[in-house]
Write a structure and sequence with these properties.
- The structure is a single chain.
- The chain is built from 22 helices and 14 strands.
- By secondary structure, it is α/β, with parallel strands linked by helices.
- Strand 3 and strand 4 (226-230) form a beta hairpin.
Amino acid sequence: PPRRLLIIAAVACSLWYLCMQYMVQSHAPAAEPRASSDLDMYSEPPVQRRPVPAVASVPPAAQLLPKVAGSQPTPAVAAQPPSARPQAVQAGQAQAKQDDEAPRCKSDDQFTDCAADLVKACGRWRNLCQSTCTPGCDPAADNDNAAVVLESPHVERVEAARAPEAEPQTCLPFSRQLCPPLNLSLLDNKEQKAVHDSCGKYVKQERNLPSPPRFCGAREGRLNPCWSETAGNGSALSYCLPHFFILGEMKCGTTTVYELLLKHPRIVAPRTKEPRYLQQGRFAQTTLSRYAVNFRRAVETAAADTVTFDASPVYLRSKIARFWLARWLPEAKLIVLVRNPVQRSYSHWKMGYEWAHGKCSDGDMAQRLKEVAELLTFSSIIQRSLVVTYWDRCRQLTGGESAPSGFSLMALNDKRLPPAEQRHLHSPAATLNYSAFGRCLLTQDHDLILEYADELRGAWPVEPLKGAMSRAKHAVGSCSEMMMLPPAALQKSGSYAVELERWARIFPRSQIKVIVTDELTRGSQRIMNETFDFLQLPRMPIGNQSRFCVRGKAGVMDVLHASELNITIGHDTSEHAHLLAPQLKVGDCEPDSGHAHDEATGSDLHRIEPRVQERLRRFFEPHNRRLYRFLGRDLGW
Protein backbone atom coordinates (compact mmCIF):
# COMPACT_ATOMS: atom_id res chain seq x y z
CA PRO A 1 0.00 0.00 0.00
CA PRO A 2 1.14 3.63 -0.48
CA ARG A 3 1.57 4.20 3.28
CA ARG A 4 3.97 1.25 3.62
CA LEU A 5 5.91 2.39 0.57
CA LEU A 6 6.28 5.86 2.11
CA ILE A 7 7.63 4.37 5.37
CA ILE A 8 10.15 2.22 3.49
CA ALA A 9 11.26 5.25 1.44
CA ALA A 10 11.74 7.38 4.59
CA VAL A 11 13.85 4.69 6.25
CA ALA A 12 15.95 4.31 3.09
CA CYS A 13 16.53 8.07 2.91
CA SER A 14 17.62 8.17 6.56
CA LEU A 15 20.10 5.34 6.05
CA TRP A 16 21.45 7.04 2.92
CA TYR A 17 21.89 10.31 4.83
CA LEU A 18 23.75 8.62 7.69
CA CYS A 19 26.06 6.82 5.26
CA MET A 20 26.88 10.07 3.49
CA GLN A 21 27.66 11.78 6.81
CA TYR A 22 30.02 8.97 7.77
CA MET A 23 31.83 9.13 4.43
CA VAL A 24 32.25 12.91 4.69
CA GLN A 25 33.69 12.76 8.22
CA SER A 26 36.03 9.85 7.47
CA HIS A 27 37.57 11.69 4.50
CA ALA A 28 37.61 15.19 6.02
CA PRO A 29 41.03 16.91 6.58
CA ALA A 30 42.52 17.13 10.08
CA ALA A 31 41.00 19.77 12.31
CA GLU A 32 42.80 23.07 12.62
CA PRO A 33 44.75 23.45 15.87
CA ARG A 34 42.92 25.44 18.50
CA ALA A 35 43.88 29.03 19.07
CA SER A 36 46.49 29.73 21.70
CA SER A 37 45.08 30.80 25.03
CA ASP A 38 46.56 32.40 28.12
CA LEU A 39 46.93 28.94 29.62
CA ASP A 40 49.24 27.88 26.79
CA MET A 41 51.91 30.46 27.59
CA TYR A 42 53.19 28.33 30.46
CA SER A 43 53.38 25.07 28.51
CA GLU A 44 56.24 24.19 26.21
CA PRO A 45 55.07 23.85 22.58
CA PRO A 46 55.90 20.62 20.76
CA VAL A 47 59.27 20.92 19.09
CA GLN A 48 61.07 19.11 16.35
CA ARG A 49 64.68 18.44 17.27
CA ARG A 50 67.20 19.70 14.78
CA PRO A 51 70.85 20.75 14.89
CA VAL A 52 71.60 24.25 16.12
CA PRO A 53 73.13 26.44 13.39
CA ALA A 54 76.77 27.32 13.91
CA VAL A 55 77.43 30.80 15.27
CA ALA A 56 80.08 32.88 13.58
CA SER A 57 83.05 33.77 15.73
CA VAL A 58 83.25 37.30 17.04
CA PRO A 59 85.77 39.55 15.24
CA PRO A 60 88.44 41.51 17.08
CA ALA A 61 87.37 44.64 18.89
CA ALA A 62 88.70 46.96 16.21
CA GLN A 63 86.41 45.30 13.66
CA LEU A 64 83.43 45.69 15.99
CA LEU A 65 83.56 49.47 15.69
CA PRO A 66 81.14 50.98 13.18
CA LYS A 67 82.57 53.33 10.57
CA VAL A 68 80.16 56.13 11.42
CA ALA A 69 78.27 57.21 14.48
CA GLY A 70 74.60 56.42 14.83
CA SER A 71 74.78 52.91 13.45
CA GLN A 72 72.37 50.21 14.53
CA PRO A 73 73.07 48.36 17.78
CA THR A 74 75.33 45.35 17.52
CA PRO A 75 73.31 42.20 18.39
CA ALA A 76 74.63 40.03 21.20
CA VAL A 77 73.83 36.86 19.25
CA ALA A 78 74.44 36.93 15.53
CA ALA A 79 73.71 33.40 14.36
CA GLN A 80 72.16 34.76 11.16
CA PRO A 81 71.21 38.19 9.78
CA PRO A 82 67.72 39.52 10.58
CA SER A 83 66.68 39.21 6.95
CA ALA A 84 67.37 35.48 7.06
CA ARG A 85 65.35 34.81 10.18
CA PRO A 86 62.40 32.45 9.88
CA GLN A 87 59.16 34.20 9.02
CA ALA A 88 57.63 32.81 12.19
CA VAL A 89 60.20 34.68 14.27
CA GLN A 90 59.67 37.94 12.40
CA ALA A 91 55.93 37.57 12.78
CA GLY A 92 56.34 36.83 16.46
CA GLN A 93 58.44 39.94 16.99
CA ALA A 94 55.88 42.04 15.16
CA GLN A 95 53.16 40.59 17.34
CA ALA A 96 55.23 41.32 20.43
CA LYS A 97 55.50 45.00 19.49
CA GLN A 98 51.73 45.18 19.08
CA ASP A 99 50.98 43.37 22.32
CA ASP A 100 50.00 46.13 24.74
CA GLU A 101 49.87 43.69 27.62
CA ALA A 102 53.58 42.88 27.38
CA PRO A 103 55.66 44.81 29.97
CA ARG A 104 58.17 47.34 28.74
CA CYS A 105 61.63 47.28 30.28
CA LYS A 106 63.15 50.74 30.59
CA SER A 107 66.15 50.21 32.84
CA ASP A 108 68.82 47.82 34.06
CA ASP A 109 66.82 47.42 37.27
CA GLN A 110 63.65 46.14 35.58
CA PHE A 111 64.13 42.96 33.64
CA THR A 112 62.83 39.43 33.47
CA ASP A 113 65.38 36.63 33.41
CA CYS A 114 65.12 36.01 29.67
CA ALA A 115 67.35 32.97 29.69
CA ALA A 116 65.44 31.25 32.48
CA ASP A 117 61.97 32.12 31.15
CA LEU A 118 62.58 31.24 27.52
CA VAL A 119 59.85 28.59 27.38
CA LYS A 120 57.27 31.10 28.62
CA ALA A 121 58.53 33.58 26.06
CA CYS A 122 58.02 31.12 23.22
CA GLY A 123 54.39 30.63 24.25
CA ARG A 124 53.00 34.13 23.77
CA TRP A 125 56.09 36.38 23.62
CA ARG A 126 55.20 37.72 27.04
CA ASN A 127 56.90 38.07 30.41
CA LEU A 128 59.93 39.73 28.82
CA CYS A 129 61.07 43.32 28.83
CA GLN A 130 60.48 44.10 25.17
CA SER A 131 62.74 47.14 24.88
CA THR A 132 65.80 45.16 25.97
CA CYS A 133 65.01 41.52 25.40
CA THR A 134 63.49 39.87 22.34
CA PRO A 135 63.02 36.10 22.30
CA GLY A 136 64.41 34.54 19.16
CA CYS A 137 62.04 31.57 19.21
CA ASP A 138 61.46 29.37 16.22
CA PRO A 139 58.56 27.00 17.06
CA ALA A 140 60.24 24.30 15.00
CA ALA A 141 63.57 24.73 16.78
CA ASP A 142 64.98 23.01 19.82
CA ASN A 143 63.90 25.21 22.72
CA ASP A 144 66.88 24.06 24.77
CA ASN A 145 69.13 25.92 22.34
CA ALA A 146 66.95 28.83 21.19
CA ALA A 147 68.68 32.18 21.50
CA VAL A 148 67.53 35.33 23.26
CA VAL A 149 68.72 38.55 21.62
CA LEU A 150 69.35 41.53 23.88
CA GLU A 151 69.61 45.07 22.63
CA SER A 152 73.31 45.85 22.87
CA PRO A 153 74.82 49.35 23.07
CA HIS A 154 75.91 51.58 20.23
CA VAL A 155 79.65 51.13 19.73
CA GLU A 156 80.75 54.48 18.38
CA ARG A 157 83.96 56.37 17.76
CA VAL A 158 82.27 59.68 18.58
CA GLU A 159 81.84 60.64 22.21
CA ALA A 160 78.33 61.39 23.46
CA ALA A 161 77.44 64.54 25.37
CA ARG A 162 77.40 63.71 29.08
CA ALA A 163 74.84 65.41 31.30
CA PRO A 164 75.92 67.32 34.44
CA GLU A 165 76.67 65.19 37.48
CA ALA A 166 73.36 65.65 39.30
CA GLU A 167 71.09 65.49 36.22
CA PRO A 168 69.59 62.43 34.48
CA GLN A 169 72.06 60.77 32.14
CA THR A 170 71.44 59.82 28.52
CA CYS A 171 74.46 57.51 28.31
CA LEU A 172 76.51 55.37 30.69
CA PRO A 173 79.41 57.53 31.99
CA PHE A 174 82.85 56.58 33.30
CA SER A 175 84.11 59.99 34.44
CA ARG A 176 81.95 60.72 37.42
CA GLN A 177 82.03 60.52 41.21
CA LEU A 178 83.12 57.14 42.55
CA CYS A 179 80.25 55.55 44.43
CA PRO A 180 81.06 54.22 46.91
CA PRO A 181 84.53 55.80 47.36
CA LEU A 182 87.61 53.60 47.58
CA ASN A 183 88.32 54.64 51.16
CA LEU A 184 84.88 53.59 52.39
CA SER A 185 86.22 50.90 54.72
CA LEU A 186 88.09 53.60 56.69
CA LEU A 187 84.81 55.31 57.63
CA ASP A 188 82.71 54.41 60.65
CA ASN A 189 79.26 52.85 60.25
CA LYS A 190 77.39 56.17 60.42
CA GLU A 191 79.62 57.74 57.77
CA GLN A 192 79.30 54.66 55.56
CA LYS A 193 75.51 54.84 55.68
CA ALA A 194 75.58 58.52 54.73
CA VAL A 195 77.83 57.74 51.77
CA HIS A 196 75.56 54.95 50.51
CA ASP A 197 72.49 57.17 50.83
CA SER A 198 74.12 59.95 48.80
CA CYS A 199 75.39 57.49 46.19
CA GLY A 200 71.92 56.08 45.63
CA LYS A 201 70.89 58.84 43.22
CA TYR A 202 73.95 58.30 41.00
CA VAL A 203 73.40 54.56 40.81
CA LYS A 204 69.71 55.05 40.04
CA GLN A 205 70.57 57.35 37.12
CA GLU A 206 72.76 54.65 35.59
CA ARG A 207 69.98 52.07 35.88
CA ASN A 208 67.40 54.24 34.10
CA LEU A 209 69.05 55.20 30.82
CA PRO A 210 66.91 55.80 27.71
CA SER A 211 66.97 53.33 24.83
CA PRO A 212 69.05 52.63 22.82
CA PRO A 213 71.82 52.09 25.39
CA ARG A 214 75.33 53.43 24.84
CA PHE A 215 78.47 54.38 26.74
CA CYS A 216 79.26 58.06 26.87
CA GLY A 217 82.84 57.53 25.76
CA ALA A 218 84.19 56.83 22.28
CA ARG A 219 85.30 53.22 21.78
CA GLU A 220 89.05 52.84 21.29
CA GLY A 221 90.51 50.48 18.70
CA ARG A 222 91.86 47.89 21.14
CA LEU A 223 91.23 44.18 21.65
CA ASN A 224 90.20 44.99 25.21
CA PRO A 225 87.01 47.12 25.46
CA CYS A 226 88.18 50.64 26.36
CA TRP A 227 86.62 54.07 25.90
CA SER A 228 87.90 57.65 25.78
CA GLU A 229 85.74 60.10 27.70
CA THR A 230 86.13 63.80 28.52
CA ALA A 231 86.33 64.49 32.25
CA GLY A 232 84.89 67.49 34.06
CA ASN A 233 88.12 69.45 33.65
CA GLY A 234 88.03 69.01 29.87
CA SER A 235 90.80 66.42 29.60
CA ALA A 236 90.20 63.14 27.74
CA LEU A 237 90.75 60.03 29.85
CA SER A 238 90.67 56.34 28.97
CA TYR A 239 88.61 53.74 30.82
CA CYS A 240 88.58 49.98 30.36
CA LEU A 241 86.27 47.09 31.21
CA PRO A 242 87.14 43.38 31.10
CA HIS A 243 87.80 41.54 27.87
CA PHE A 244 86.81 38.27 29.53
CA PHE A 245 85.21 36.95 32.71
CA ILE A 246 85.85 33.90 34.89
CA LEU A 247 82.24 33.25 35.87
CA GLY A 248 82.87 30.41 38.34
CA GLU A 249 82.16 28.01 39.85
CA MET A 250 83.66 28.56 43.29
CA LYS A 251 86.07 25.84 44.51
CA CYS A 252 86.64 24.61 40.96
CA GLY A 253 90.10 26.08 40.41
CA THR A 254 89.33 29.72 39.62
CA THR A 255 92.41 30.85 41.58
CA THR A 256 94.61 28.45 39.62
CA VAL A 257 93.33 29.75 36.29
CA TYR A 258 93.70 33.32 37.57
CA GLU A 259 97.38 32.76 38.38
CA LEU A 260 98.14 30.86 35.16
CA LEU A 261 96.54 33.59 33.06
CA LEU A 262 98.74 36.22 34.69
CA LYS A 263 101.83 34.41 33.39
CA HIS A 264 100.89 35.80 29.98
CA PRO A 265 102.59 39.19 29.42
CA ARG A 266 99.54 40.60 27.63
CA ILE A 267 97.06 39.85 30.41
CA VAL A 268 96.82 42.51 33.12
CA ALA A 269 95.48 41.70 36.60
CA PRO A 270 92.47 43.58 37.98
CA ARG A 271 92.87 45.62 41.15
CA THR A 272 91.25 42.80 43.15
CA LYS A 273 90.63 39.24 41.97
CA GLU A 274 86.86 39.45 42.52
CA PRO A 275 85.33 42.93 42.02
CA ARG A 276 81.82 41.36 42.18
CA TYR A 277 80.21 44.42 40.61
CA LEU A 278 77.37 42.31 39.15
CA GLN A 279 76.56 40.51 42.39
CA GLN A 280 73.13 40.93 43.96
CA GLY A 281 73.31 43.75 46.51
CA ARG A 282 76.59 45.26 45.25
CA PHE A 283 75.11 46.10 41.85
CA ALA A 284 72.46 48.23 43.53
CA GLN A 285 75.03 50.48 45.24
CA THR A 286 77.99 50.72 42.85
CA THR A 287 78.52 53.04 39.87
CA LEU A 288 80.30 52.08 36.67
CA SER A 289 83.09 54.54 37.50
CA ARG A 290 83.76 52.65 40.75
CA TYR A 291 83.86 49.32 38.92
CA ALA A 292 86.19 50.65 36.20
CA VAL A 293 88.81 51.58 38.83
CA ASN A 294 89.60 47.86 39.06
CA PHE A 295 90.99 47.94 35.51
CA ARG A 296 93.20 51.04 35.60
CA ARG A 297 96.29 48.92 34.95
CA ALA A 298 94.90 48.02 31.53
CA VAL A 299 94.53 51.74 30.78
CA GLU A 300 98.14 52.38 31.71
CA THR A 301 99.36 49.67 29.32
CA ALA A 302 99.97 51.06 25.88
CA ALA A 303 99.87 47.75 23.93
CA ALA A 304 96.73 47.53 21.80
CA ASP A 305 96.36 43.77 22.37
CA THR A 306 96.72 43.84 26.17
CA VAL A 307 93.59 42.64 27.97
CA THR A 308 92.23 42.53 31.50
CA PHE A 309 89.53 40.46 33.19
CA ASP A 310 87.12 39.99 36.09
CA ALA A 311 87.43 36.71 38.07
CA SER A 312 84.31 36.96 40.26
CA PRO A 313 83.12 33.33 40.62
CA VAL A 314 79.66 34.41 41.78
CA TYR A 315 78.63 35.50 38.27
CA LEU A 316 77.82 32.03 36.96
CA ARG A 317 74.53 31.92 38.86
CA SER A 318 73.78 35.65 38.68
CA LYS A 319 70.93 36.74 36.41
CA ILE A 320 72.16 40.34 36.84
CA ALA A 321 75.52 39.33 35.36
CA ARG A 322 73.89 37.49 32.45
CA PHE A 323 71.67 40.41 31.58
CA TRP A 324 74.21 43.22 32.07
CA LEU A 325 77.05 41.53 30.18
CA ALA A 326 74.83 40.54 27.26
CA ARG A 327 73.54 44.09 27.03
CA TRP A 328 76.71 46.13 27.65
CA LEU A 329 79.58 43.80 26.74
CA PRO A 330 78.07 41.39 24.18
CA GLU A 331 81.48 40.46 22.75
CA ALA A 332 82.86 39.38 26.16
CA LYS A 333 84.58 36.00 26.47
CA LEU A 334 83.31 33.77 29.26
CA ILE A 335 85.27 31.08 31.13
CA VAL A 336 83.51 28.51 33.33
CA LEU A 337 85.21 25.84 35.44
CA VAL A 338 83.44 22.62 36.43
CA ARG A 339 84.65 20.01 38.91
CA ASN A 340 83.50 16.63 40.17
CA PRO A 341 80.50 17.80 42.23
CA VAL A 342 81.17 15.46 45.16
CA GLN A 343 84.70 16.79 45.54
CA ARG A 344 83.57 20.39 45.01
CA SER A 345 80.96 20.01 47.76
CA TYR A 346 83.62 18.90 50.22
CA SER A 347 85.92 21.81 49.29
CA HIS A 348 83.01 24.20 49.72
CA TRP A 349 82.29 22.88 53.21
CA LYS A 350 86.01 22.83 54.13
CA MET A 351 86.47 26.50 53.24
CA GLY A 352 83.43 27.45 55.32
CA TYR A 353 84.66 25.32 58.24
CA GLU A 354 88.12 26.92 58.17
CA TRP A 355 86.66 30.43 57.90
CA ALA A 356 84.27 29.75 60.79
CA HIS A 357 87.02 28.63 63.16
CA GLY A 358 89.41 31.34 61.98
CA LYS A 359 86.99 34.25 62.15
CA CYS A 360 85.27 33.10 65.36
CA SER A 361 88.17 31.54 67.27
CA ASP A 362 87.20 32.95 70.67
CA GLY A 363 84.39 34.67 72.50
CA ASP A 364 80.67 33.98 72.47
CA MET A 365 80.51 32.95 68.80
CA ALA A 366 83.24 30.36 69.29
CA GLN A 367 81.36 28.88 72.24
CA ARG A 368 78.18 28.58 70.19
CA LEU A 369 80.02 26.71 67.46
CA LYS A 370 81.62 24.40 70.01
CA GLU A 371 78.21 23.41 71.43
CA VAL A 372 77.08 22.03 68.05
CA ALA A 373 80.44 20.73 66.80
CA GLU A 374 79.00 17.25 66.09
CA LEU A 375 76.52 18.81 63.64
CA LEU A 376 79.16 20.81 61.71
CA THR A 377 81.06 17.88 60.19
CA PHE A 378 80.94 17.42 56.43
CA SER A 379 78.75 14.32 56.67
CA SER A 380 76.25 16.10 58.90
CA ILE A 381 76.08 19.35 56.89
CA ILE A 382 75.86 17.67 53.49
CA GLN A 383 73.22 15.16 54.57
CA ARG A 384 71.11 17.94 56.08
CA SER A 385 71.53 19.68 52.72
CA LEU A 386 70.17 16.59 50.96
CA VAL A 387 67.13 16.46 53.24
CA VAL A 388 66.43 20.19 52.73
CA THR A 389 66.74 19.76 48.94
CA TYR A 390 64.39 16.77 48.94
CA TRP A 391 61.97 18.74 51.13
CA ASP A 392 61.75 21.55 48.57
CA ARG A 393 61.42 19.06 45.72
CA CYS A 394 58.47 17.35 47.45
CA ARG A 395 56.93 20.71 48.32
CA GLN A 396 56.75 21.49 44.61
CA LEU A 397 55.01 18.16 44.00
CA THR A 398 52.60 18.08 46.95
CA GLY A 399 52.37 21.68 48.20
CA GLY A 400 53.00 23.07 51.65
CA GLU A 401 55.59 25.31 53.23
CA SER A 402 59.19 25.70 52.09
CA ALA A 403 62.06 23.89 53.77
CA PRO A 404 63.63 25.61 56.78
CA SER A 405 66.45 27.90 55.73
CA GLY A 406 70.04 27.68 56.90
CA PHE A 407 71.10 25.86 60.03
CA SER A 408 67.59 25.26 61.39
CA LEU A 409 65.58 22.39 62.83
CA MET A 410 63.74 20.37 60.19
CA ALA A 411 60.47 19.61 61.97
CA LEU A 412 57.43 18.93 59.80
CA ASN A 413 54.18 20.84 60.16
CA ASP A 414 51.59 19.04 62.31
CA LYS A 415 49.32 18.73 59.27
CA ARG A 416 51.84 16.35 57.74
CA LEU A 417 51.96 14.10 60.81
CA PRO A 418 49.44 11.87 62.59
CA PRO A 419 47.55 13.44 65.54
CA ALA A 420 49.91 14.08 68.46
CA GLU A 421 48.16 11.60 70.74
CA GLN A 422 48.62 8.81 68.15
CA ARG A 423 52.24 9.39 67.12
CA HIS A 424 53.63 7.04 69.76
CA LEU A 425 51.70 4.24 68.06
CA HIS A 426 53.46 4.76 64.74
CA SER A 427 56.95 3.77 63.66
CA PRO A 428 59.10 6.51 62.07
CA ALA A 429 58.31 5.20 58.59
CA ALA A 430 54.58 4.98 59.33
CA THR A 431 54.63 8.51 60.74
CA LEU A 432 56.08 9.88 57.51
CA ASN A 433 53.75 7.73 55.38
CA TYR A 434 50.79 9.56 56.95
CA SER A 435 50.95 12.36 54.32
CA ALA A 436 51.64 12.59 50.61
CA PHE A 437 54.57 14.88 51.44
CA GLY A 438 56.12 12.31 53.79
CA ARG A 439 55.67 9.53 51.25
CA CYS A 440 57.38 11.71 48.66
CA LEU A 441 60.34 12.27 51.00
CA LEU A 442 60.76 8.51 51.50
CA THR A 443 60.91 7.96 47.73
CA GLN A 444 63.85 10.40 47.40
CA ASP A 445 66.28 8.53 49.68
CA HIS A 446 64.47 6.11 51.99
CA ASP A 447 67.37 5.28 54.32
CA LEU A 448 68.52 8.91 54.66
CA ILE A 449 65.03 10.18 55.47
CA LEU A 450 64.57 7.48 58.10
CA GLU A 451 67.84 8.58 59.73
CA TYR A 452 66.33 12.06 60.09
CA ALA A 453 62.83 10.84 60.91
CA ASP A 454 63.03 11.73 64.60
CA GLU A 455 63.95 15.31 63.75
CA LEU A 456 61.28 15.51 61.05
CA ARG A 457 58.54 14.36 63.44
CA GLY A 458 59.75 16.64 66.25
CA ALA A 459 61.17 13.98 68.59
CA TRP A 460 64.78 15.22 68.27
CA PRO A 461 66.79 17.09 69.43
CA VAL A 462 66.13 17.42 73.12
CA GLU A 463 67.65 19.91 75.51
CA PRO A 464 70.36 21.06 75.85
CA LEU A 465 71.20 20.37 72.18
CA LYS A 466 67.95 21.91 70.97
CA GLY A 467 68.76 25.23 72.63
CA ALA A 468 72.37 25.05 71.41
CA MET A 469 71.18 24.67 67.80
CA SER A 470 68.93 27.69 68.18
CA ARG A 471 71.78 29.80 69.60
CA ALA A 472 74.24 28.63 66.91
CA LYS A 473 71.98 29.37 63.93
CA HIS A 474 73.37 32.89 63.40
CA ALA A 475 76.95 31.99 64.30
CA VAL A 476 77.21 29.20 61.71
CA GLY A 477 76.22 31.54 58.90
CA SER A 478 78.12 34.61 60.05
CA CYS A 479 81.39 32.89 60.95
CA SER A 480 81.55 30.75 57.79
CA GLU A 481 80.49 33.60 55.45
CA MET A 482 77.33 31.55 54.71
CA MET A 483 79.45 28.72 53.26
CA MET A 484 78.30 26.10 55.78
CA LEU A 485 74.59 26.83 55.62
CA PRO A 486 72.57 24.00 54.02
CA PRO A 487 72.08 23.48 51.13
CA ALA A 488 74.64 25.91 49.59
CA ALA A 489 77.39 23.36 48.88
CA LEU A 490 74.90 21.01 47.23
CA GLN A 491 73.18 23.62 45.07
CA LYS A 492 76.35 25.09 43.58
CA SER A 493 77.75 21.64 42.80
CA GLY A 494 74.62 20.52 41.00
CA SER A 495 73.82 23.59 38.90
CA TYR A 496 76.63 23.61 36.31
CA ALA A 497 74.43 22.49 33.42
CA VAL A 498 71.44 24.67 34.27
CA GLU A 499 73.55 27.81 34.46
CA LEU A 500 75.59 27.03 31.35
CA GLU A 501 72.39 26.51 29.38
CA ARG A 502 71.13 29.91 30.50
CA TRP A 503 74.35 31.66 29.49
CA ALA A 504 74.34 29.83 26.15
CA ARG A 505 70.89 31.22 25.39
CA ILE A 506 72.16 34.80 25.35
CA PHE A 507 75.80 34.28 24.31
CA PRO A 508 77.08 32.27 21.33
CA ARG A 509 78.80 29.02 22.26
CA SER A 510 81.91 30.38 20.55
CA GLN A 511 82.23 32.90 23.43
CA ILE A 512 81.98 30.30 26.22
CA LYS A 513 84.98 28.20 27.29
CA VAL A 514 84.37 25.35 29.77
CA ILE A 515 87.42 24.04 31.67
CA VAL A 516 87.27 20.75 33.60
CA THR A 517 89.32 21.05 36.79
CA ASP A 518 90.86 17.56 36.62
CA GLU A 519 91.94 18.11 33.02
CA LEU A 520 93.57 21.40 34.04
CA THR A 521 95.47 19.61 36.81
CA ARG A 522 96.93 16.86 34.65
CA GLY A 523 97.41 18.89 31.45
CA SER A 524 97.70 22.53 32.45
CA GLN A 525 99.80 23.66 29.46
CA ARG A 526 97.41 22.10 26.94
CA ILE A 527 94.35 23.59 28.62
CA MET A 528 95.95 27.02 28.90
CA ASN A 529 97.02 26.91 25.24
CA GLU A 530 93.38 26.34 24.34
CA THR A 531 92.39 29.19 26.66
CA PHE A 532 94.89 31.62 25.14
CA ASP A 533 93.56 30.71 21.68
CA PHE A 534 90.05 31.35 22.94
CA LEU A 535 91.11 34.80 24.21
CA GLN A 536 92.75 35.66 20.86
CA LEU A 537 96.21 35.77 22.44
CA PRO A 538 99.43 33.99 21.44
CA ARG A 539 100.29 30.84 23.38
CA MET A 540 102.74 31.17 26.25
CA PRO A 541 104.55 28.65 28.52
CA ILE A 542 103.08 28.67 32.03
CA GLY A 543 105.58 26.54 33.97
CA ASN A 544 105.07 23.29 35.85
CA GLN A 545 102.86 24.30 38.75
CA SER A 546 99.25 23.36 38.05
CA ARG A 547 97.50 24.27 41.33
CA PHE A 548 97.34 27.50 43.31
CA CYS A 549 95.38 28.38 46.42
CA VAL A 550 94.58 31.68 48.11
CA ARG A 551 96.23 32.26 51.51
CA GLY A 552 93.84 34.30 53.60
CA LYS A 553 91.15 36.60 52.27
CA ALA A 554 93.01 39.87 51.71
CA GLY A 555 92.87 41.10 48.12
CA VAL A 556 90.24 38.59 47.06
CA MET A 557 87.22 40.88 47.03
CA ASP A 558 86.63 44.57 46.45
CA VAL A 559 85.75 46.02 49.86
CA LEU A 560 82.56 48.07 50.14
CA HIS A 561 82.09 47.83 53.91
CA ALA A 562 84.58 47.63 56.75
CA SER A 563 82.88 44.49 58.05
CA GLU A 564 83.11 42.57 54.79
CA LEU A 565 85.19 39.44 55.16
CA ASN A 566 86.96 40.99 58.13
CA ILE A 567 89.21 42.93 55.74
CA THR A 568 90.35 46.52 56.14
CA ILE A 569 92.39 48.42 53.59
CA GLY A 570 94.58 49.95 56.28
CA HIS A 571 95.05 53.19 58.11
CA ASP A 572 97.45 54.99 55.78
CA THR A 573 95.94 58.46 55.37
CA SER A 574 98.32 59.67 52.66
CA GLU A 575 96.90 61.19 49.49
CA HIS A 576 96.89 57.98 47.41
CA ALA A 577 96.36 55.43 50.19
CA HIS A 578 92.78 54.72 49.14
CA LEU A 579 93.95 53.63 45.68
CA LEU A 580 95.89 50.72 47.15
CA ALA A 581 94.21 47.30 47.29
CA PRO A 582 95.06 44.54 49.77
CA GLN A 583 97.70 42.27 48.28
CA LEU A 584 96.36 38.92 47.15
CA LYS A 585 98.44 36.09 48.63
CA VAL A 586 98.56 32.91 46.56
CA GLY A 587 100.66 29.81 47.16
CA ASP A 588 100.79 26.03 46.85
CA CYS A 589 97.71 24.00 47.75
CA GLU A 590 98.81 21.91 50.69
CA PRO A 591 96.77 18.69 50.92
CA ASP A 592 95.57 17.84 54.42
CA SER A 593 95.60 14.41 55.98
CA GLY A 594 92.20 13.69 54.49
CA HIS A 595 93.42 13.54 50.89
CA ALA A 596 94.09 10.53 48.66
CA HIS A 597 95.87 10.80 45.31
CA ASP A 598 93.93 9.53 42.29
CA GLU A 599 96.33 8.23 39.65
CA ALA A 600 93.63 8.24 36.95
CA THR A 601 92.91 11.96 37.19
CA GLY A 602 96.16 13.14 38.75
CA SER A 603 94.14 14.91 41.44
CA ASP A 604 94.17 14.81 45.23
CA LEU A 605 90.74 13.64 46.34
CA HIS A 606 89.08 14.35 49.67
CA ARG A 607 88.42 11.25 51.74
CA ILE A 608 84.65 11.07 52.21
CA GLU A 609 82.68 8.48 54.15
CA PRO A 610 81.67 5.83 51.52
CA ARG A 611 77.99 5.85 52.49
CA VAL A 612 77.80 9.64 52.17
CA GLN A 613 79.78 9.61 48.93
CA GLU A 614 77.35 7.11 47.40
CA ARG A 615 74.37 9.24 48.40
CA LEU A 616 75.95 12.27 46.77
CA ARG A 617 76.83 10.30 43.65
CA ARG A 618 73.19 9.23 43.25
CA PHE A 619 71.98 12.78 43.87
CA PHE A 620 74.33 14.34 41.30
CA GLU A 621 73.86 11.65 38.63
CA PRO A 622 71.01 13.33 36.69
CA HIS A 623 72.73 16.73 36.98
CA ASN A 624 75.93 15.23 35.59
CA ARG A 625 74.10 13.64 32.65
CA ARG A 626 72.64 17.03 31.80
CA LEU A 627 76.13 18.57 31.85
CA TYR A 628 77.46 15.78 29.63
CA ARG A 629 74.74 16.56 27.07
CA PHE A 630 75.74 20.22 27.08
CA LEU A 631 79.45 19.41 26.65
CA GLY A 632 78.89 16.56 24.23
CA ARG A 633 81.08 14.17 26.24
CA ASP A 634 81.07 12.05 29.39
CA LEU A 635 83.38 13.23 32.19
CA GLY A 636 83.13 9.98 34.13
CA TRP A 637 81.80 11.49 37.35
